[in-house]
Amino acid sequence: MDQGSLARILKQVSGGEDEIQQLQKALLDYLDENTETDASLVFSRKFYVAQWFRDTTMETEKAIKSQKDEDSSEGTHHAKDVETTGQIMHRAESRKTFLRSIIKTAPSQFSTLKMNSDTVDYEDACLIVRYLASMRPFAQSFDIYLTQ
Fold first, then answer.
1. Nearest to 132 by CA among 35, 1, 7, 41
2. DSSP assignment of the chain
3. Is position 128 within any domain?
4. What's the confidence (pLDDT) of residue 112?
5. Is the pLDDT of residue 108 over 60?
6. What is the pTM of this model?
7. In a domain, 74, yes or no
8. Quick one: average pLDDT of 106-125?
9. Diameter over CA atoms, the chain
10. Percentage of the residues of the chain whose pLDDT score is greater than 70
11. Is residue 144 part of a domain?
């Protein structure tokens, strides 16, 4: 991954969200900008929002399950993990709130959400997609699957 380009995109994207959320916003804005030239981008935009919402829900469920498993097996040795689980829950809720605001936005209001049309071009959008895809569980465990 081209970390320099990702850092440049993150600098251009305003917002106090986490890195993933900023990249998601940049990609959604790029897709929104180009829906007039390619109608399939409307579907792509909806697909990404739905997939990210699902991923956030799965991450939350996994954190809750791991916390319950540790509660039953280790007792009082998990104070640090509970704090981490709380952070995961907080981050997941902020991402869900962000995605809900995107879902509730009517297509006619997309233009008011746009940042700057020069922020992300096609190559940057491809880089963002590759980076966000690399954060998915299957991509992270691909080497393990190949080894097995």
1. 1
2. --HHHHHHHHHHS--SS-HHHHHHHHHHHHHHHTTTT-THHHHHHHHHHHHHHHHHHHHHHHHHHHHHHHHHHHTTTTHHHHHHHHHHHHHHHHHHHHHHHHHHS-GGGHHHH---TTS--HHHHHHHHHHHHHTSHHHHTHHHHHH-
3. yes
4. 46
5. no
6. 0.74
7. no
8. 63
9. 58
10. 77
11. no
Closest CA to 34 of 46, 45, 25, 23: 45
Expressed as residue numbers, the domain containing 45 is 1-11+18-68+83-106+121-133
pLDDT tens-digit profile of 74-101?
655 555 556 677 888 888 888 889 889 8
What is the token pair recorded at 41? 């981008």
Who has greater pLDDT, 115 or 14?
A: 14
Residue tagged 């897709």 (tokens): 31
- On whether residue 112 sits in a domain, the answer given is no
Distance CA 52, CA 94 (A): 12
Higher-confidence position of 58 and 110: 58
Number of domains in the chain: 1
Q: Which amino acid is at 89?
A: M
Task: Extract long-range pairs of 105-109: CB within 8 Å, 24+ residues apart.
Answer: 107/42
